[in-house]
Amino acid sequence: MRLRTAIPSDRQILEYWDTKPHVVWAGGEDDAFDWANELPRDPPWRQLLIAEEADRPIGFMQIIDPKEEETHYWGDVAPNLRAIDIWIGEETDLGRGYGTEMMRLALERCFSDPDVTAVLIDPLARNVRAHAFYQRLGFRPVGRRMFDEDDCLVHRMERRAWSVCAYRGPDCL
């Protein structure tokens, strides 16, 4: 698997994935992307990534610096954090280990910056499968929080937890 920068020609697949029931259900009310405008942009605080398996797009990830992100979605947060959004595009690709591998690659990207202290995620509170997935990877719940209309259970992975997991090898993630 590889993560590559999303480009304007990915717009069609991303808009298609946005219509998939499992993506809509997990995305919440405020999760709509304006792909036409966002894909050409390259702000320094954000990475938009396509996950590919054998050159086939299977999912999307966004990694942001929540302190620098322009809408201040995360509010007033400490510096040196990252936040991740992730989804698998096709239902047939769920449950095949792709999400785990995507998260492993994303966490490596995040923690390759020695200043990054932790990574945040914000799955919807109702998405208990996502909570179990993230907790299995080493994220810990820090509390419920409303992001506009979305009731989320914020999770956090500290650098130390990632380091321990990375030390244990690829079976940890």
Automatic annotation (TrEMBL):
Domain of life: Bacteria
UniProt xrefs under PROSITE patterns: GNAT (PS51186)
Annotated N-acetyltransferase domain residues: 1-160
Keyword annotations of the record: Antibiotic resistance
InterPro entries named in the record: Acyl_CoA_acyltransferase, GNAT_dom
GO biological process: response to antibiotic
Single GO term (MF): N-acyltransferase activity
Name of protein: Acetyltransferase
Organism field: Flavimaribacter sediminis
